[in-house]
Amino acid sequence: MFSVTKNQKQAHVIVCGNEKGGSGKTTTIMHLTVALLNAGYKVATLDLDTRQQSFSRYINNREIFSKRSNVNLSLPDHHTVKRDYSDYVSDRENNELLELLQVITDVQSKNDFILIDTPGHDGYLMRMAHSMADTLVTPMNDSYVDFDVLGQIDPDTGNVDTLSHYARTVREARRQRRIADGGLMDWIVVRNRLTQINSRNKEAMYKSLNNLSMQLGCRLAEGISERVVFRELFPKGLTALDDLENILSTPRTNASHLSARQEVRSLIASLKLPIDELAKKRQEARDAYLEKQTKPVDTIGM
Ligand SMILES: Nc1ncnc2c1ncn2[C@@H]1O[C@H](COP(=O)(O)OP(=O)(O)OP(=O)(O)O)[C@@H](O)[C@H]1O
Ligand SMILES: [Mg+2]
After folding, report:
1. Residue 25 phi, psi dihedral angles, 5° rounding
2. Reduced to 3 states, what is the DSSP secondary structure of residue 152?
């Protein structure tokens, strides 16, 4: 059980998770990171996919591109948790958990958001991260094979018969979170790589997902389409949300880029992040600062 108490905790934790590999977790978390950075929030990021480290590489590519091209790209305060190679599983889990907690403790009071990418397989750290999430975003490909990771479908009715392993993992994470600090996790499932074609599969999936969302207590966000811009910018560490018109030497912004931006913005809006509360806190800090500035110097701190 993690020991980050409510009082210490300040940053809002967003976790991207799905036990299904290749569902779009890293792509989604990178776009959310850049969206929040560009909106002026302080963002810490954490890559828990200790094997692939694609999120770390994405951010590293961004840093290198920013320096090489002399473009001032916003960057998060990025961290990883190293894999522990102790002989006993209990030691490994314990050491990795301690490191995870250390990172969270270090960054939580300095940032508005902590964004965590998780691996596409079950594991101790992945489960711990889920139990820390204020917001869990689960991208999934628009296919019943991917759906199966969440729930099994009755082939006749299209309704969910049985909850699958990942759905049960999230339910357990929610339960642990409630016990730990009374926190509630908001779970949002977002369909990824949607095609423009209106197929029967798309409609059937939508119906099944609605059925699932009622059983799981999760919300459905509007989907993200299959677009080249979501996969071509990784080597430069850029995203569809960056100012590609001015950054790239051969700007290729087109209608698809603009739609991609709109889709990510809609996703952010549907996450209902505590952005108003943060803005209020900032305003209070600014007011306090301004009040100090208007007082004669020798009365400050008296
Ligand atoms: N909306 C999209 N349009 C086009 N390509 C996409 C989209 N989303 C993801 N991809 C591509 O799909 C692949 C898998 O995406 P990504 O690496 O983000 O998934 P993941 O869930 O993090 O995978 P893993 O479980 O292996 O960590 C990548 O090649 C990525 O570029
Ligand atoms: Mg990934």
Report:
1. -60, -50
2. strand
Give the Å distances, CA to CA, from 158 to 107, 146, 179: 44, 15, 34
Q: Among 27, 140, 143, which residue has the most ligand 1 atoms within 8 Å of its CB, making it the best to mutate?
A: 27
What is the CATH T-level fold of the domain 12-271, as seen in this structure?
Rossmann fold (3.40.50)
Domain boundaries, the chain: 12-271, 275-302
Chain segment 32-43, per-residue pLDDT in tens: 999 999 999 999
74 lines ligand 1 (CB under 6 A): no
Which one, of 104, 118, 111, lies nearest residue 55 by Cα? 118
26 Cα–ligand 1 center, Å: 7
Distance CA(10)–CA(112), nearest Å, equals 7
Residues 135 and 16 sit within 8 Å (Cβ to Cβ): no
Name the DSSP letter for residue 235.
Answer: G
Cα separation values, 87 from 80, 84, 256, Å: 21, 9, 50
* 138 Cβ closer than 6 Å to some ligand 1 atom: no
Query: What is the distance in A from the centroid of ligand 1 to the CA of 24?
Result: 4
DSSP 8-state secondary structure symbol assigned to residue 222: P
Per-residue pLDDT reduced to its tens digit, 68-122: 999 999 999 999 998 888 888 888 888 888 999 999 999 999 999 999 999 998 8
* CA–CA separation, 200 and 144 (whole Å): 12
Q: From ligand 1's centre to the CA of 140, what distance in Å?
A: 10
pTM comes to: 0.88
CA 218/CA 213 separation, integer angstroms: 5
CA angle 49, 75, 98 (to 5 degrees): 40
Sign of the alpha-carbon torsion through 82, 83, 88, 94:
positive
